[in-house]
């Protein structure tokens, strides 16, 4: 009987050691995989919350790309600051459409409901504002805000771009 008990204690000790080794290996694997998981999470594009947010992001990107294209065509071009302006023509017609959306469908005053009712309705809740700043080192920062209402709350998406200031205004900032 003592022999059986000694074999059991040796077996249980080995099981305990192997279980401890398995737990240690699992901990090491977890620690090794956490940075990879974090890298995957960071490199993934952020999930969009809604179609409105996605549309606002596309509109902000359109404005940034238009500013970059105008800057490429004329190196002296720098956009000015603008208040919140509608993206499509308002029904009352008293508010000016953002200059970055006036040329849609070849219309001077922006898209109207008669031009394309579905597109007009989709773009009507959005408003565009541009802030600009001179920075040290000869840079010019452009921030494009697209504001919209969703679920009774005002929401805003913004994109920013750093441009080099024209040589005529580099140096002391105004």
Structure overview:
The chain is an alpha+beta fold. The protein folds into 2 domains: 1-44; 51-164, no CATH class. 41% of the residues lie in helices and 22% in strands. The chain has 3 helices and 4 strands; from the N terminus they run H-H-E-H-E-E-E. The protein has helices spanning 2-43, 51-73, 117-123; strands at residues 82-86, 127-135, 139-150, 153-164. The protein has a 4-stranded antiparallel β-sheet with strand order 1-2-3-4. 14% of the residues are buried. The mean pLDDT is 81.
Helix content: 40-55%
| Terminal-residue CA separation | 97 Å
* Structure classification: alpha+beta
Number of spatially distinct domains = 2
Task: Enumerate the spans where pLDDT stays under 50 for 5 or more consecutive residues.
Answer: none
Largest sheet: 4 strands, antiparallel
Q: What's the arrangement of strands in the largest beta sheet? A: 1-2-3-4
**What is the count of DSSP helices, taking H or I runs of 4+ residues?**
3
Q: What characteristic shape results from the CA principal axes? A: elongated
How do the helices and strands follow one another from N- to C-terminus?
HHEHEEE
Instruction: Average the pLDDT over all residues and give the rounded result.
Output: 81
Gyration radius, rounded: 30 Å
Total strands = 4
Q: Report the β-strand fraction as a percent range.
A: 15-25%
Question: Topology, pairings included?
Answer:
Layout lengths: L1 H42 L7 H23 L8 E5 L30 H7 L3 E9 L3 E12 L2 E12 L10
Antiparallel strand pairs: 1-2, 2-3, 3-4
